[in-house]
Amino acid sequence: MTAARDRGSAVVDFVLVGGLLVLLFVAVLQLALVLHVRNELIDSAAQGARYGALAGHGPQDGAARTRELVSAELSARYAADVSAQRQDAGGVALVDVQIAAPLPIVGLLGPSGRLVVHGHAPVEGP
What we know:
Layout: H1 2-5, H2 9-53, H3 59-73, E1 82-89, E2 92-101, E3 115-122
Antiparallel strand pairs: 1-2, 2-3
């Protein structure tokens, strides 16, 4: 009698567990994409700051280099809000490059300006 009531329940269990596993896989994949975007932005900001801190270059050169790197690695949409300035931190002159980019929620789409990263480098020469 119990065998008749349990008939077909394995199919339903398979579909529900399969759907849950697919959802979990997509969530982990999206998290990996967010971390990749964040790491690319941090690396580009740091490289732009180092370029802007070289002798004979200025913060705006670093911002332009950062825009080039971000556009090449991700998208021009992510390079839309890049700024650079010279700062003084404890008597050391630094170039600070800041990127405000979209936070990828679904694929690479998401709200603008939610992911903000900085890159710093000490200025060479006087």
